[in-house]
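#lab-general

N.A. 3:47 PM
ok so I finally got the sequence cleaned up, no stray characters, all 412 residues accounted for. can someone with queue access submit it? mine expired

B.Y. 3:52 PM
send it over

N.A. 3:53 PM
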Amino acid sequence: MTIMNQAAGRTRQVIAAVAALDHIVTATLLTVAVIQSWRTHTPALPLLLAAAAFTSWYVGGPRRGSTTWFVILAGLWGALTVVSPAFVWVAFGLWLHAARLLPLATAATYTATTLAVVLLIPAIDSGSWTVSKIVGPSVGALVAVALARGQVLLARESLTRAQLLESLLQAQEESAVLHDQLAAAHRHAGALAERTRLSRDIHDTLAQGFSSIVLLARSADSAPDDAARRDLLARIEATAVDNLHEARRVVGALTPTALEHHSLTAALQRLLDDLHRDTGITTELRVSDDPPQLRTTDEVVLLRTVQGALANVRTHAHAHQVIISVDSTAHEVLLDIVDDGIGFDPSRHDRPPDVAGIDVTRGGYGLTSTRARLKELGGMLTIESAPGHGTAVCAHLPLRPPASDDPPEERT
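B.Y. 4:20 PM
back already:
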C-alpha cells in the first residue's frame, strides 16, 4: 500500500467519524423537535408525515452526500419549520453538511439565509426578541461552519502532504537508481580507461621490444661468425629483460624505466642508440640549449610518442637516418621525429582519437594512440609525409610548470 492510499484511508476514516457525529447531532435535534412539537399540540398527521419524509430522504435518498441530496434535504427542512417552529434548530445539523458539501461562498450564503429564518421564526412565534435568541443561533452557525470547514481543510492538507511525501520517496528511489547507474558508468569508464592505458603502453613498449627481438633473431642467419651471433643473442636477451621490467611497470602504472633515473633527453638518446645498434640507421638528437622543465606525465607522453614513431621506422620506413628535435616556445614544447624513409599517405592512416573500438590486431594503432595521448593533455600530433619523401612527425604539448608534488627529474 502506497503512502497516498494510506493517507486516503485515514482521511476517509476521519471524514466518516465526523459525518457520524453530524448524523447524531441531526437525529438528536430532529427527535427533540418532534417531541417538542408533540407537546405543543402540533397536528399529528402533518408532523409525522413531514418528519418521516425528512428522515427517509436523509437516510435513503439517492446520491446521499451530494449537492442535489443536500438541496432537497434543505427543502424538506423548510417544510418542517412550516409544520412546527421547533424544527428550526435542525438547521444546526444542516449547517454542518453545508460547510462540507458546498463551496465556501455558497455554504456561507446558505448559512446566513437559514440563520435569518432561525432567528425570525422563534421571534414571530413568541412575539419578542432577546439577546440569547440572537447570539445563541449565531454562535451555533459560526461554530458549525468553522468545524465542518476545518474538517474539509484538514482532509485536503492530509492528502496534499501525503502526495508530497510520496513524490519525495519516489524521487529518492529514482535518485538511488540514477546513483547506481552513475556508479556503474564510472566503473565502466574506469575499466575502459585502464584498458586504453594498457593497450597504449603495451603497443609503445612491449610490441616494440618484440619487434626488435624478431629483427635481431632474423639477422642471426646473416651473422658472419659466432662472435657476431653471440652479440646478437646478448642484445636479444637485454631487450627481453628490458621489456620484462617494462611489462611489470605497465601493469603497475609506474613511471617508465627509461625515465625513472634519467632525464627525457637521456631516455631519447638511449632509444636512438638502440635503434642504431639494432638496425644500423644513423640517428641524431637535437635539444635546445635550455630544455623545458616538464611534468612526469608530459615526459611520459613524449617518450611514448618517440617510441611509437621509432617503432614505425623499424618496421615500415626503410630509412637511413632519423633525427629527433626537442624545442620549446613560451607556451608549448615541440618534439619532431624526422626520417628519410619511403614515406606514406597520412590520410589513409588517420583515425579519430577514440581508440576504444579499434582492432589493434590489424595494425594502424600507433598513430591513433599517440594522437589520443597528446589530446588528453591538450596537445596535438601533426604528420607530414608522402610516398618516397620520408616522414616528419611533430608533437605539440602545452608547456606546464612542474607540479609541487612532481619535481622535475635531475638533468644529466
